[in-house]
Write a structure and sequence with these properties.
Rossmann fold
Length: 401
C-alpha cells in the first residue's frame, strides 16, 4: 500500500471513531479528506451521506449514498440508509424500493424492515406495514420502537385490544413511556396529560418538516394563518409592531405578519421546521425552545403574540396565558386558534390533538387580564374530507392590567 492510500485508511478509521462518538462535523471533514484522495471510496461516500441525513440534509444524503451504491451496489445498509433519506423527503414509493433492495441482499435487515414499515404506513398500506414490523420483531422480539409502531398501526386498523397490548409491551421493553401513555390517553385508557410530550412533538414535526406545507395547505386546505391575519388586521393600528409567532413552524403565519412587523420573532420545538422558516427570510429572530420557557424571559417585549394551530398540542392553557400576558406590553394583543371542543373546558381527542371550549377561553382571558376583542368560529382545515371547526380569538390586554 502506498503512503497516500495508507494515510487515507488512517483518516477513514479515525473518521469512523469520531462518527461513532457523535462528533459529526469532525468525522465529515475526515471523510471528505479521504474522498479527496480516493473519490470512489465507498465507506466515505456512504457514511458522509449518513451524516448528511443525521443533520437533516436529506437531498445531499441521497446524492452521496447514490454515489456509494454506484461503487458497490451489494451493501444492504447503503440501500436502507438512502431509503431513510427518501422517507424523510416524503418520497415514500422510492423509499419502499430502496428498502426492498436492502432486503433482497439481507432479508433479516431489521432497520430496512422498520423503514419499510414506516414508508408503507405513510402510503396507507397498513396490512403490509404491519407485516414489515412483524418481520422486524421476528429478528428482534424486544425492539421497543417496532412494538410501538406496530401498536400504532393496529389502533389505526381498528384492532384496539391488540394495539394497546403492543404499546404496553413496547413500554415494558424500554420505549418512550411518556409518548405511549399520551397515545393511550387519546383513546381513553390512560389519564389525559396537560400537554403533549415535547419529544413526541419534536419528532413529529422534525420528520414532517420537508412535506409539511404541501400536505397541510394543498391536501388539508389549512386556513388558520389567513383567518388569524384577517382578525388582526381588522383590529390593527397603523403602527408597526413587535410580534412573537409562537410555534411558528415553517413560517406560514410569519410571512403574513411581516408587513405589519417592526420585529418578528419565532419560536418552535422543531429544529427542522425552523430551518424551513429561516429560508423565508421574514423573521428577525428564531429560537428552538419550548414556548412557555421562552415567554418566561421576555417581560413586556411584544405588541402582538400570535399562535396558529399551536394549542392543539396543549390541554391546560393557563401557563401559556400567564406567559403571554407577561410578554405583552400595555395594550398588547394575543391572537390564536384552537380546535372547538365540547362544553367542558378541554379534552384530548383520538386524533391526539386537544380541543378547547369557548367558555374556557373566556374564563382564562378574564383571569389573566385580557379583554376579548373578538372570538369567532371558523373552519381551520379539513381532515378525512370533513371540516375541522375551531375558535379564532383576539384578546387585548385590559386597561390598567
Amino acid at each position: 500500500m502506498d503512503d497516500g492510500r495508507g494515510a487515507a485508511t488512517l483518516r477513514y478509521e479515525r473518521a469512523l471513531a469520531l462518527h461513532r462518538g457523535g462528533r459529526l462535523d469532525e468525522a465529515a471533514a475526515l471523510y471528505r479528506e479521504v474522498l479527496a484522495c480516493e473519490p470512489s471510496h465507498f465507506g466515505s461516500l456512504h457514511l458522509l451521506g449518513v451524516i448528511e441525513g443525521q443533520c437533516s440534509r436529506y437531498s445531499a444524503a441521497v446524492a452521496l449514498i447514490e454515489q456509494a451504491i454506484r461503487v458497490d451496489p451489494d451493501v444492504a445498509a447503503a440501500h436502507a440508509n438512502i431509503g431513510n433519506a427518501q422517507l424523510a423527503l416524503g418520497f415514500f414509493d422510492k423509499a419502499v424500493a430502496s428498502y426492498q433492495r436492502a432486503l433482497a441482499l439481507q432479508p433479516a435487515h431489521r432497520p430496512a424492515l422498520m423503514g419499510q414499515g414506516k414508508a408503507l404506513w405513510s402510503l396507507g398500506q397498513l396490512t403490509d406495514a404491519l407485516a414489515s414490523y412483524d418481520a422486524a420483531l421476528a429478528v428482534e422480539p424486544d425492539c421497543g420502537e417496532s412494538l410501538m409502531n406496530r401498536g400504532d398501526i393496529l389502533l389505526v386498523m381498528g384492532r384496539r385490544a391488540e394495539g394497546v397490548a403492543s404499546l404496553r409491551r413496547a413500554m415494558a421493553c424500554g420505549a418512550d413511556a411518556e409518548r405511549i401513555q399520551f397515545v393511550l390517553a387519546s383513546i381513553g385508557t390512560e389519564t389525559v396529560p396537560a400537554k403533549a410530550p415535547a419529544g413526541y412533538l419534536k419528532d413529529l414535526f422534525d420528520n414532517y418538516a420537508n412535506r409539511f406545507e404541501a400536505e397541510l395547505v394543498e391536501t388539508l386546505r389549512y386556513r388558520t394563518p389567513e383567518l388569524l391575519e384577517q382578525l388582526v388586521r381588522r383590529d390593527s393600528s397603523p403602527a408597526r409592531l413587535d410580534i412573537l409567532d409562537l410555534g411558528c413552524g415553517t413560517g406560514l403565519c410569519g410571512q403574513l405578519m411581516r408587513p405589519i412587523a417592526r420585529r418578528l420573532a419565532g419560536v418552535d420545538l422543531s429544529a427542522n421546521m425552523l430551518g424551513q422558516a429561516r429560508e423565508r427570510g421574514v423573521y428577525s429572530d428564531l429560537e428552538c425552545v419550548e414556548l412557555t420557557d421562552f415567554l418566561a424571559r421576555c417581560d413586556a417585549a411584544f405588541d402582538l403574540v400570535i399562535a396558529a394551530d399551536v394549542f392543539t398540542y396543549l390541554g391546560d392553557l393557563a401557563p401559556v396565558f400567564a406567559g403571554v400576558r407577561r410578554g405583552l406590553r400595555a395594550g398588547g394583543r394575543f391572537a390564536f386558534s384552537v380546535e372547538a371542543g365540547d362544553p367542558q373546558e378541554w379534552e384530548l381527542a383520538a386524533t391526539r390533538r386537544y380541543r378547547h371550549s369557548r367558555h374556557y377561553l373566556e374564563r382564562l382571558a378574564a383571569e389573566h387580564g385580557f379583554d376579548v376583542a373578538a372570538m369567532e368560529k371558523g373552519v381551520l382545515r379539513r381532515e378525512a374530507g370533513n371540516p375541522v371547526d375551531g375558535h379564532l380569538a383576539l384578546l387585548r390586554v385590559a386597561m390598567g392590567r
